[in-house]
Amino acid sequence: MTLAFLHRGARFVRRHWIAFTLAVAHLLGAVSSVDALMGTRTAPGAVAWIVSLNTFPVVAVPTYWVFGRSRFQGYVIGRRDTDSQLHHALETKMALVQPFAARNFSSHLDLQAMERLAKLPTLTGNDVQLLADGEATFNSLFEGIRSARHYLLVQYYIVRDDELGRELSRLLQERARAGVQVHFLYDEVGSYQLPSGYLNGLRTAGVHVRSFHSTRGSGNRFQLNFRNHRKILVADGVSGWTGGLNVGDEYLGRNPAIGAWRDTHLKLVGPAVFALQLSFMEDWYWATGEILAFDWTPVEAQGRKLPVLVLPSGPADRFETASLMVQLALSNARDRIWIASPYFVPDEGVQSALKLAALRGVDVRILIPEKPDNPLLYFAAYAFLGPMLEAGVKIYRYHDGFLHCKTILVDDKASAVGTVNLDNRSFRLNFEITTWVYGRDFAQEMEAKYLHDFGHSHLMELSDVTGRPWWFRLASRAAYLLAPVL
């Protein structure tokens, strides 16, 4: 009798505990729904989160607070926030570059809109070198490190403790021991495999090492979805490098599971290097609270005198800067716009701009990998490629290795090389950076690279999409629903 009573009591407690837990979960789901309604940047994303938060709150609530939010709280953009300490510290440097502000040149792009997105002017007097693939890039990068005499700013999303990564470490340690101020910033999510021994070796040699620390601040404490995807190296404020390559053996084609690696980077010399330096300083300020001060004066390059605009973007921006940048380029293109992106799941605005550009007769070409390293993105793309092909957008699938370039060519005068992929993550969740170079000669160099890559690609036809089996089309639609978090 007593044992049965105890069993009934235990069942009663379990039922009430489950009911209490579910009630709390639904309450938290309702509260989280308000945050999703007010903070999610896209209507489809807000609807998806609100439905899931109220239908499956036990799973959806923790998922939302780790992956769902798209606003990065507390980051100070010195170019924009005039009341910040960082802005005041940079006022003198910003004034130094004003004499190099480029004016009265033809670009086919709306410079005012681009500069307002960048919160920076287009600067002239720059020499720009296009670096295709890993060998050319790292030869140039490492030579730049060896040549540094005063300071080095080094920032990467991924750094690996492999042959290439250890060579970078050795060079940075050597420069630090020679008295060069070396600041090394890495993304703790992208470089999660980087061992403490690697970082301690740098610190012991005198390198200032910090992670970006994207969970810093009460508003970001649980957020694992933000990344700092920028790749920047600055030597003495004179030379700078940026583009698509991280630091790892695979970027030299040494990983047999991936094979050949196709990528693009830039070397800048001239006043525009200031913009790379400024972006690094803002990220360093977020990570450490320290304002870096260097004795730096802009110097015009000796080679080509090209106008350059460096456009940082990220989840701390008031606007969706990266998406607007791509839409602006598409709307301004007159004859052609060619885009390379390893991850191609653009938002509705960019999809519409791509189709509209093709419909008005612009030669729109998209270069993507034949075999991407993310299966979900591969499937998701097939959910919208059909209408694009019908509108006249040409889709090329690169088959001679893995394509990792993030580049744009507009007509014959404007070119972009950077870190932005055409997907939700780059548009809304990542800190990114894009360099726009204006000049016919440089555009011709970009054109030659594109034509070479098109020659190693398969031009898709509509039957490549419509001819897929039903299960593939179903998988593509399901994967596309996950686009906001891919």
Describe the structure.
The chain has 486 residues and is an alpha/beta fold. It folds into three domains: 2-68, no CATH class; 85-103 and 111-308, Endonuclease, Chain A; 321-485, Endonuclease Chain A (Endonuclease, Chain A, 2-Layer Sandwich), CATH 3.30.870. Helices cover 44% and strands 19% of the residues. The chain has 17 helices and 18 strands. The strands form two sheets. It has a 16-stranded mixed beta sheet that branches. A hairpin with a 3-residue loop joins strand 15 (407-410) and strand 16. The model has no long low-confidence stretch (mean pLDDT 87).
List the helices and strands and how they pair.
Layout: H1 2-39, H2 43-55, H3 57-68, H4 85-97, H5 111-118, E1 123-132, H6 133-147, E2 151-156, H7 163-177, E3 181-186, H8 196-204, E4 208-211, E5 227-228, E6 232-235, E7 239-243, E8 261-262, E9 264-269, H9 273-288, E10 306-313, H10 321-332, E11 336-340, H11 348-359, E12 363-369, H12 375-381, H13 385-391, E13 394-398, E14 402-403, E15 407-410, E16 414-418, H14 424-429, E17 430-438, H15 440-454, E18 457-459, H16 463-466, H17 470-481
The termini sit apart by 57 Å
Radius of gyration: 24 Å
In CATH, the topology of the largest domain is named: Endonuclease, Chain A
Q: Please estimate the helix content.
A: 40-55%
The geometry reads as globular
Give a nutshell description of this structure.
The chain is α/β, with parallel strands linked by helices and 486 residues long. Helix 1 runs antiparallel to helix 2 and helix 2 packs antiparallel against helix 3. The protein is 44% helix and 19% strand.
